[in-house]
Write a structure and sequence with these properties.
Elements: E1 4-9, E2 12-17, H1 27-41, E3 48-53, H2 76-84, E4 90-94, E5 97-99, H3 101-108, E6 111-114, E7 119-121, H4 135-143, H5 145-154, E8 158-159, H6 160-166, E9 171-172, H7 177-189, H8 207-216, H9 223-237, H10 240-255, H11 258-272, E10 290-293, H12 297-308, E11 313-316, H13 320-339, H14 345-353, E12 355-358, E13 369-372, H15 378-391, E14 397-400, H16 407-411, E15 420-425, E16 434-439, H17 445-457, E17 461-464, H18 473-489, H19 494-504, H20 510-517, H21 520-531, H22 540-546, E18 559-560, E19 569-570, H23 572-578, H24 590-610, H25 617-628, H26 637-643
Parallel strand pairs: 2-3, 3-4, 4-6, 5-7, 6-9, 10-11, 10-13, 11-12, 13-14, 14-15, 16-17
Antiparallel strand pairs: 1-2, 7-8, 15-16, 18-19
The protein binds 3-hydroxybutanoyl-coenzyme A and 1,4-dihydronicotinamide adenine dinucleotide.
1,4-dihydronicotinamide adenine dinucleotide binds at residues 293-299, 316-318, 322, 373-376, 380, 384, 401-403, 425-427.
Domain 3-hydroxyacyl-CoA dehydrogenase C-terminal: 470-561
Pathway: Lipid metabolism; fatty acid beta-oxidation
Protein name: Short chain enoyl-CoA hydratase /3-hydroxyacyl-CoA dehydrogenase
Length: 645
């Protein structure tokens, strides 16, 4: 099957690339494009060539699945070069996304035009690599070095209008793209052709600008960004051919690196998790309005997540006063976004106008899906679900945001349990990407599909989880904290364990993070289990809480804190509480400590997999990356532990 079709529009040859789903560049596509250049150069009836794509997008880049396989000719940089040297000028007509190798092919064309909603970018750094087909060499020659640094190191695509302003494209085409592009090509042919991008001059930048750019990417996990700066700098200070050889060298080294392998793993994991195969063909229920019970930390955050996605919200609280508090919680979150410049005052007003808050459960009647986020007490939650069963439509989906309780117990007594599901958001719910979706054995497939569809609308990363204490994330987190305490018992310092976790790539170590969120939350949960008669031994953190040290809120936990200062300082008082329980002399290196923490998480993950709580190891990696700050560039605990074996 040919990937590329050709037809003539007068004296313009129109090529249409069709390689679903995203026109990723395969060896066959490269071969056919190469042949097309030769063929059209030799055809006297052709004055110009229009490169268009079928389906939802322009060429979205190299085929990531081909990375790591033996390269097949023609190589992409040579193809881009061949297109640029074509005797007939090529015009790229871009719709959807022109990404990575797709944009590099477009930069080999003499002209680029795009639909108004098109996106253009070089996202290679997100995969741990740099552009490998002249992206760091042609881009500065096309739009200047400073703009090129932004485009390449951010990995974020530009919208058509921004691309036009920067000079990345020559025109935005309203209406029918191929038709408008042919018109553009005809007009362009009547004027003098611009220089090919590779021979355009590029103004050098001050060394200080390059040094600043390099310094911005000195951290771990930014290896691709750092080397992209290096390649861009070289490209602006050296001739084209030498710059291409340099880019290639860096590209190949990065492509074969651990970070790139990890980021490719995450790329495919993120595309697999939202689409469980068992839901293929299952139509989700429509959700036009979401109900939320509870306007505390989570209820307010979930409400903002819904409103940011344009979904109207009905919030129900215990009484009018609590309902008003719920609204002010929402307002406080939105005001924070306004302060940070993420939202305008008008948008904030619009978000608030879409929230109806009251103490009257009957207001939930029109809601298609209701999320309960009240206190973590089984009796309170069961009472809420009894109310929901009374007031909600029989086909409304009912969800609980419980962290630890068994959803089956929460739904007991609700008629039609096939419409019930766990939706475990993470705090702050308007920011954290992770959403654990927890079906019970009774949950209907279309209800589960509705949960996944809602996650998509809210911009969340959904991961299916089975029922056990803490589901996937909190269960692994508990094991992580226990391992961190074990390292203390073996004689390592609190700050040593935290530093090891940070060196590995966590934003915070386990102990400073507990001080920030408060040691009392997990303590109270364990006290609850003890009150039920379960044998739950005291952890070291329980001992600190019993000594009045709950974290930053009490000016001390694992560390001490000066008033108004969140800097953790080693604590003699904490040490006194811990000392009787320390049984070793430490001695592990930072890397060994981090490996212990990661191995413990992976070990728990393997149990979770064996029990069927997670569907795939890569789902566990996503839970840790999107819910717990596990460094993305290591691929998650399962991937990292498997690699280090
Ligand atoms: N290679 C292989 N498969 C790809 C791919 C790629 N570059 N990009 C997307 N796919 C696959 C996905 O895995 C998915 O497959 P599935 O249906 O079997 O699960 C399918 O295409 C659809 O992908 P999405 O669900 O992401 O589709 P969307 O419509 O939501 O998004 C997109 C489309 C914006 C193009 C998005 O897929 C995307 O951002 N892709 C990555 C683009 C990229 O990173 N390109 C650079 C590649 S590296 C490169 O070009 C190196 C060069 O410089 C030499
Ligand atoms: P919170 O204490 O901040 O808010 C709970 C709210 O529920 C309060 O505003 C309270 O007035 C309201 N409420 C209590 N009983 C009610 C009733 N019968 N009807 C209506 N409203 C009622 O608690 P938070 O932190 O928001 O937690 C809520 C749920 O979310 C819990 O199940 C918790 O385990 C879960 N969760 C919490 C996370 C967190 O980090 N705080 C993370 C993920 C889940």
């Amino acid at each position: 099957m040919q990937i590329i079709q050709q037809h003539m529009d007068g004296d313009i040859a129109v090529l249409t690339v069709d390689n679903p789903p995203v026109n990723a560049i395969s060896a066959q596509m490269r071969q056919e494009l190469w042949q097309a250049v030769d063929r059209l150069d030799a055809d006297p009836a052709v004055r110009a060539v229009l490169l268009t794509c079928a389906g939802r997008t322009f060429i979205a880049g190299a085929d990531v699945r081909e990375f790591g396989q033996p390269p097949v000719e023609p190589h992409l940089p040579d193809l881009v070069d061949r297109i640029e040297r074509a005797e007939k000028p090529w015009v790229a007509a871009i719709h959807g996304s022109a990404l990575g190798g797709g944009l590099e092919i477009a930069m080999g064309c003499r002209f680029r035009v795009a639909a108004p909603d098109a996106k253009l970018g070089l996202p290679e750094v997100n995969l741990g690599i740099i552009p490998g087909a002249s992206g760091t060499v042609r881009t500065p020659r096309l739009i200047g070095a400073e703009a090129a640094i932004g485009l390449v190191t951010s990995g974020r695509p530009w919208r058509a209008q921004q691309a036009l302003t920067a000079g990345l494209i020559d025109a935005v085409v309203e209406g029918d793209l191929p038709e408008g592009a042919v018109k553009f090509a005809r007009a362009a042919l009547s004027a003098e052709l611009p220089l090919p991008v590779s021979v355009r001059p590029v103004a050098p930048l001050d060394a200080a600008v390059w040094d600043r750019a390099a310094a911005a990417f000195a951290g771990p996990g930014q290896q691709a960004q750092a080397r992209a700066v290096e390649s861009l700098r070289y490209a602006t200070e050296h001739p084209f051919d030498s710059a291409m050889r340099n880019e290639r060298r860096i590209f190949v080294a990065l492509r074969d690196s651990d970070q790139a392998a990890a980021l490719r793993h995450v790329f495919f994991a993120e595309r697999a998790a939202p689409r469980p195969p068992e839901l293929k063909g299952v139509t989700p229920r429509g959700v036009a309005r979401v109900g939320i019970v509870g306007g505390g930390t989570m209820g307010a955050g979930i409400a903002v997540a819904c409103r940011n996605a344009g979904v109207p919200v009905v919030m129900v609280e215990r009484d009018d006063e609590a309902a008003a508090r719920g609204v002010s919680n929402i307002r406080a979150i939105l005001a924070g976004s306004v302060k940070r410049g993420k939202l305008t005052e008008a948008q904030m007003a619009d978000r608030l106008a879409g929230v109806e808050a009251s103490a009257d459960y009957a207001r939930l009647a029109p809601c298609d899906l209701v999320i309960e986020a009240v206190f973590e007490e089984i009796g309170v939650k069961q009472a809420v679900f009894a109310e929901l069963a009374r007031v909600c439509r029989a086909d409304a989906v009912l969800a609980t945001n419980t962290s630890y309780l068994d959803p089956r117990r929460i739904f007991e007594g609700v008629p039609g349990q096939d419409r019930c599901v766990g939706l475990h958001f993470f705090s702050p719910a308007h920011i954290m990407k992770l959403l654990e979706i927890v079906p019970t054995p009774d949950t209907a497939p279309d209800v589960l599909a509705t949960a996944f569809a809602l996650a998509g609308r809210l911009g969340k990363m959904p991961v299916r989880a089975g029922i056990c204490e803490g589901f996937i994330g909190n269960r692994i987190f508990k094991r992580y904290r226990a391992e961190a305490e074990k390292l203390l018992v073996e004689g390592h310092e609190v700050q040593q364990v935290d530093a090891a976790a940070r060196d590995f790539g966590f934003r915070m170590g386990p102990f400073e993070a507990q001080d920030l969120s408060g040691l009392d939350i997990a303590f109270l949960q364990r006290e609850g289990l003890r009150a039920e008669g379960q044998d739950v031994p005291d952890t070291l953190s329980d001992r600190l809480v019993r000594a009045g040290r709950k974290g930053q809120k009490t000016a001390g936990g694992w560390y001490d804190y000066a008033k108004g200062d969140r800097t953790p300082r080693p604590s003699a008082a904490a040490q006194e509480v811990l000392a009787p329980h320390i049984a070793g002399a430490g001695g592990l290196s930072s890397a060994q400590i981090a490996a212990r923490l990661v191995d413990a998480m992976a070990d728990e993950g393997r149990k979770i997999l064996a029990e069927g709580i997670a569907s795939r190891a890569s789902d566990i990696d996503l839970v840790e990356i999107h819910g717990y700050g596990f460094p993305r560039w290591t691929g998650g605990p399962m991937f990292a532990a498997a690699r280090s074996r």
